[in-house]
């Protein structure tokens, strides 16, 4: 029978004690709480205290984020639309090489066009939102909705005042719905 003094361990080692063997623990003689070494925090960690106070991205990060997200999502959506157009335009006598070429050309053209438009919208929105935060010295939902209104109006300003007003209203409504949806998700979805 094994000496009971060699079984120094916590409750998780009890199962191995009963079977007559124990696992090697390299940390047992170090007198440190080795169980908590790998318990990583779930809250964000900051290098400087000032970073923990700011709860939003800087204007440069915002600009890069919204422009990149806009361009990427537009390129993917445009590529899918181009693929659909190319498949519809296929003729029965086309070779595989011709069909692939048509798909690549159509997807690339539609992806670039829609990606550039959404990238510009993201650029305008990020600039306006960051400007409103700087002017109003507060970060709330009104900045986001006003930036959506301004982005839509400025994007369609060359098409005339009526188009600009309609686009501004659509932009404001879309951003308002996104802000409301974000609040609902924060409140009712446990993350």
Automatic annotation (TrEMBL):
Acetylation keyword on record: no
Keywords assigned: Membrane, Transmembrane, Transmembrane helix
PANTHER family (alphabetical): SD19278P, TIM23
Membrane topology: Multi-pass membrane protein
Name listed for the protein in its UniProt record: Uncharacterized protein
Superkingdom in the source lineage: Eukaryota
A GO term from the CC aspect: TIM23 mitochondrial import inner membrane translocase complex
Gene Ontology molecular functions: protein transmembrane transporter activity
GO BP terms, alphabetized: protein import into mitochondrial matrix
Region (Disordered): 1-20
Compartments reported by the entry: Membrane
Compositionally biased residues, Basic and acidic residues: 11-20
Keyword Ribosomal protein tagged: no
């Amino acid at each position: 029978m094994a000496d009971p003094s060699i079984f120094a361990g916590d409750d998780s080692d009890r199962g191995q004690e009963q079977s007559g063997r124990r696992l090697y623990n390299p940390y047992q003689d170090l007198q440190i709480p080795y169980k908590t070494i790998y318990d990583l925090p779930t809250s964000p960690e900051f290098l400087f205290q000032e970073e923990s106070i700011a709860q939003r991205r800087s204007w440069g990060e915002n600009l890069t984020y919204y422009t990149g997200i806009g361009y990427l999502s537009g390129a993917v959506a445009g590529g899918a639309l181009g693929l659909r157009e190319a498949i519809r335009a296929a003729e029965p006598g086309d070779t595989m090489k011709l069909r692939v070429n048509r798909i690549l050309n159509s997807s690339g053209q539609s992806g670039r066009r829609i990606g550039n438009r959404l990238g510009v919208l993201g650029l305008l929105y990020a600039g306006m939102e960051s400007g409103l935060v700087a002017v109003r010295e507060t970060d709330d939902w009104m900045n986001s909705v006003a930036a959506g209104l301004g982005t839509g109006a400025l994007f369609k300003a060359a098409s005339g005042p009526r188009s600009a007003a309609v686009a501004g209203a659509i932009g404001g409504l879309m951003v308002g719905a996104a802000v409301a949806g974000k609040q609902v998700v924060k409140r009712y979805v446990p993350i």
